Amino acid sequence: MILVESTLGNLRDAIWQERARSAAVDLLVLEQWEAPKSRLRKTTGSGVEIAISLPRSEHLHDGDILHYDAEAKLIVAARIALKDVLVIELEGLEKLSPGEILRTCFELGHGLGNQHWPAVVKDSTVYVPLSVDQKVMASVMRTHAFDHVKTYFAPGEEIAAKLDAREVRLLFAGADATPHHHHDVSPDTQPHRHSHGHSHNDGHHHGHDHSHTPVT
Fold first, then answer.
1. β-strands 85-89, 125-129: how paired?
2. Are the C-beta atoms of 188 and 173 separated by less than 8 Å?
3. Maximal CA-CA distance, the chain
4. CB 3.0 to 4.6 Å from 151: which of 27, 39, 111, 215, for a disulfide?
5. Distance of CA 29 to the CA centre of its chain
6. What pTM was computed for the model?
């Protein structure tokens, strides 16, 4: 078993691209709900057991180097495929009247909560991970017709780079859940949810084009 307490770099770095040309790259494939975890144990594609034990302030990114054996010419790297994220821009909302701000925020919260979608708010932006088909999420947003709100889809890796480790855990740890599937989620990775008079315990691949898809 290989214990990983820090990463060595990333496959995108020039030095690791050069080393990868003459070394075998063994991938540790992580699902979206596993990627934000700072501690986990899993086996690579070739059967090597990896124990991840990173500081709580860190999280893995796609291509991170977990282990390098120069003599054996072996690189162990993380392969993470985060799904797209629905981005809801609220910038400019403060220019509205207090009543309009309250109504817009309430309706937006009610709309997202009614779908049991996890969400993270950072500054004037709300991030919602893709937990159902993108067309379904776009349809829900169109149905509510939120005024003064701009929405679009962006690659998960792009959004994860803007967030700290805690926010990444909140956003992605429970994103693979469907509304009526129950999963156990630890308290520090439980996404923000809304209550509607009934309790739920919803805890719930490589390569992005990095293009934003408007919600139309």
1. antiparallel
2. no
3. 67
4. 215
5. 15
6. 0.62
